[in-house]
From TrEMBL:
SUPFAM superfamilies: beta-lactamase/transpeptidase-like
InterPro entries from the UniProt entry: Beta-lactam-related, Beta-lactam/transpept-like, Diverse_Enzym_Activities
Organism, scientific name: Pedobacter paludis
Full protein name: Serine hydrolase
Gene3D superfamilies named among the record's database cross-references: DD-peptidase/beta-lactamase superfamily
Length: 356
């Protein structure tokens, strides 16, 4: 009798342990992982361990191929769950971030402020020199560095060129939100304040610290960052952790927190060059219309994103400890977007079929 009882207890104990092993591990209970700098190896996590739907992954991949994607990654707690390459792209291939790289500029500007080199509430012409616009000086004086970070300079956005003759007055700084390339003047602000090239400052203070590869390319209109997909994911992981990498708080958590909150009262869905989901309304590039509801209805409400032309994306979702990266050509070549597009909603429907 005692032997039978002992065998029963051992069996029950084994089944309980097996159940615990087979059960998905909640993302919130797992320690955050940071890949070593310049390392090829990167820890992975299986789809099964998260309880995701393996059967929906093929449909997601098919959609990504149909929409001209080059690469796609999902990280959970820093570990790679999905890493896919399409159309001849590979792990080592560089691709342009387009305006998703604005978030790199915003972060670098914050680093310069952290070091006491500049103050984002100071007039931009304190760093750029007076007369950097074609506005009357009284109007130019109103434009702070912060206005460049929030797309509220009040300058005419109709031209892609950021040259003095095109930087003309439309409204007082802070009174109008308009998506424009004038943000790139932040690179000149940082360069002036740090007394070195923007690229050098960026490399030393951010890129090298989190192990990114990549380079700034002089594009037709403005400098564009290029990197491999894993480097884009590294920056997403840095953002997920509020500017922290491993044990180092590279940029102050307070500045990063400001970056991913509504930065002005005109477009609630915009921070410091980051796009924000879950707000009551949003505006889009090239329009002064205000649209009601979330930027991407199917995406988690706490998501914030780096978004660039031709659907370059870094989605950061704190509630899921998740980072998602997409690189590639425009999902709809006939109607390429500057940033926000209908592609995001369609993609998130496919992602939700996998993760929910």
């Amino acid at each position: 009798m005692k032997i039978k009882l002992l065998l029963l207890l051992v069996t029950l104990s084994f089944l309980a342990c097996k159940k615990k092993i087979d059960e998905p591990t909640p993302a919130s209970s797992e320690q955050m992982y940071y890949p070593p700098n310049n390392a090829i190896d990167w820890e992975t996590k299986s789809v099964a361990s998260l309880g995701w739907k393996q059967t929906a992954i093929d449909d997601l991949k098919k959609f990504l191929v149909e929409k001209n994607s080059k690469s796609f990654m999902i990280l959970v707690n820093g570990r790679i769950v999905l890493e896919e390459y399409f159309n001849g792209h590979s792990q080592s291939t560089s691709w342009q971030w387009n305006s998703a790289g604005k978030t790199l500029v915003a972060t670098t500007t914050g680093l310069a402020q952290q070091e006491g080199l500049l103050n984002i509430n100071t007039a931009a012409n304190q760093y750029l020199g007076t007369g950097w616009t074609s506005e009357p000086l009284t109007k130019e004086n109103l434009i702070s560095v912060r206005h460049l970070l929030t797309m509220t300079s009040g300058l005419d956005e109709s031209s892609d060129l950021v040259i003095k003759s095109k930087l003309t007055y439309v409204a007082d700084a802070g009174t109008r939100w308009a998506y424009a390339n004038v943000f790139q003047k932040l690179m000149d602000v940082v360069s002036s304040a740090s007394k070195q090239t923007f690229e050098s400052y960026f490399d030393n203070k951010l890129k090298n610290k989190i192990g990114m590869d990549g380079f700034w390319d002089d594009g037709i209109i403005f400098k564009i960052y290029n990197s491999n997909t894993r480097s884009m994911a590294r920056f997403g992981l840095f953002a997920l952790n509020n500017g922290k990498w491993n044990k180092e708080q590279i940029i102050s958590e307070s500045f990063f927190s400001e970056s991913i909150k509504t930065s002005q009262n005109i477009n609630p869905s915009y921070g410091y060059l980051w796009w924000l989901n879950g707000k009551s309304s949003y505006m889009i590039p090239g329009s002064q219309n205000v649209f009601q509801g979330n930027l991407i209805p199917s995406a988690p409400s706490d998501m914030y994103a780096a978004m660039g032309a031709s659907d370059q994306r870094i989605y950061v979702i704190p509630s899921k400890n998740m980072v998602i990266v997409r690189m590639g050509n425009a999902s709809d070549p006939a109607n390429p977007s500057f940033a926000v597009s209908g592609f995001d909603e369609s993609l998130w429907q496919k992602i939700n079929a996998v993760i929910n």
